[in-house]
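Thread title: Can someone regenerate the structure for this chain?

I was given the following input by a collaborator and told the matching structure tokens would be attached. They weren't. Posting the sequence so someone can regenerate them.
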Amino acid sequence: MISAKRMKQKLQQKVSNELFSTQEQTILREAKSKTALQFLAEIKKAKHATITHGERQCLTEMANLGLLDEVINVILLLTFNKVNSANLNEKYALKVANDFSYQKIFSAEEAVVYIRERYQTQHSKKAAKDSAPKSNVPDWSNPDYKNETSAEKQAELDEQKRKLLAKLDQGGD
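Best answer:
Regenerated them for you:
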């Protein structure tokens, strides 16, 4: 689909000096060499499936957001890798496309870097969460626990304990 907005985005692309892995370079090369429809057709052919009307409509909607074919191709690859299916998860693809449009990601390089950064952020959060399992056992039950209550605070607690016990002895009111 040709639109003035998409042509403007193509002209404004920045040349990236980022270092990409060989896998990312392959993705970039493939994403830039084909239209979104050709790219989708290749993926579907590899999965022994055909392109549905809904998938064609999804490509049109992503193009209407001003995304270039190379960015749409990266989104397609991301979507198919996320879900092991022969069909495009159209809702997810459009969600990612909306996010890319909002984040002003208009080149395949920017898309790959953005995906890489999100992946690393999500995995570092998950690793941090998994590495320190939260225990519901109170600290004071730990055999190595050191009571660091000051003498003043301990005196207040003892006084409060004495008053509550006296109140309990008198009938609880």
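The chain has a mean pLDDT of 84.
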